Amino acid sequence: MAVLLSTKPAAMAMWRDALLAVDPALEIRMFPESGDPADIEAAVVWTAHDMAELRRYPNLRLIVSMGAGVDHLLRPPGPPPGIPVARLVDRMLTTQMGEWVLLNVLRFHRQDLDYRAQQRDGIWNELPAPVTAETPVGFLGLGELGSHAAGLLRGLGFPVLGWSRRPKQVAGVESFHGADGLAQMAARSRILVCLLPLTPETRGIVDARLLGLLPRGAFLINGARGQHVVDADLLAALDSGQVAAAALDVFSPEPLPAEHPYWTHPRVVMTPHAASITIPASAAPQVVENLTRARAGESLLNLVDFSAGY
Ligand code: OXD
């Protein structure tokens, strides 16, 4: 039996080597060279893989997303019925995202965009001192990534608020849920960080209404999916000053077309979906563990809940 890998060509060999380092007995096939479809028992795939293609493998018993997000697996037609899907919950992914959030919160909190602009123009001018304890940071999403980043900010003394679909308690975080909770949290968030899973309910959640509820001059940080943000609404909010600046790692579509206004907007800081990149050597042990569990008919680690969409 074999494991099918499907990802960017540059990452394929790294994944193969990482899986073989955990279990040298594995047979690895690299898509599109899948060999006999009957051999494939697990598919470890990233965003470009077509879910219809996975219906070709009659003995498939496990699908694994190569990242934390699974929206790509849930796109129509979705995974083959009855095949369990697992996502990655990985310390290195969580750590990287925490660092990226921290970088951008501090960038905005410490007026770095303004100081850079002043430096460019040769201006020596001290801006008002930022007060950490008076700068609430609101998180959309309190899953693995959100709770970890929230904890880092809490440790620095920021008041931290968090909104999740279902009620959730995270130490040191004032939590909100539901539509009313979202509005209450937004009204207090000087910096809004989106780390939500992409589901039909969260698509377009960062729209003119939500941005309009933020305190004037708030900041947006999006490390989740481009489809969470209504781009025209964000650009309008940036241009009116309702949102002072945005840090964006994710876009719709990706790569972002060269003519998109974000590229040159003076108040947008971009990274190319690089906030948190899967390191195969870190993720491989849980993939192999899930394969062992799937073979034994045991419950999987980080199983995707299709009803919740993540
Ligand atoms: C992920 C991502 O889902 O990198 O892990 O976007």
Walk me through this protein's architecture.
By secondary structure, this protein is of the alpha/beta class. It folds into two domains: 108 residues, NAD(P)-binding Rossmann-like Domain (Rossmann fold); 180 residues, NAD(P)-binding Rossmann-like Domain (Rossmann fold), CATH 3.40.50.720. Helices cover 33% and strands 17% of the residues. A seven-stranded parallel sheet has the order 8-7-6-9-10-11-12. β1, α1 and β2 form a beta-alpha-beta unit. The two termini are 28 Å apart. The structure holds oxalic acid (OXD). The site of oxalic acid has 5 residues, from loops.
- Total helices: the number is 9
Please give the CATH class of the largest domain.
Alpha Beta
Number of domains: 2
Strand arrangement in the largest pleated sheet = 8-7-6-9-10-11-12
Low-confidence stretches: none
Q: Regarding quaternary structure, how should these chains be classified?
A: single chain
- By CATH, the architecture of the largest domain is named 3-Layer(aba) Sandwich
Apparent shape? elongated
Which molecules are bound besides the chains?
oxalic acid
- Within CATH, the superfamily of the largest domain carries the name NAD(P)-binding Rossmann-like Domain
What share of the residues does DSSP label as strand, in percent?
Answer: 15-25%
State the separation between the terminal residues, measured CA to CA.
28 Å
Domain D-isomer specific 2-hydroxyacid dehydrogenase NAD-binding: 105-275
Organism: Falsiroseomonas tokyonensis
Keywords: NAD, Oxidoreductase
Protein name: 2-hydroxyacid dehydrogenase
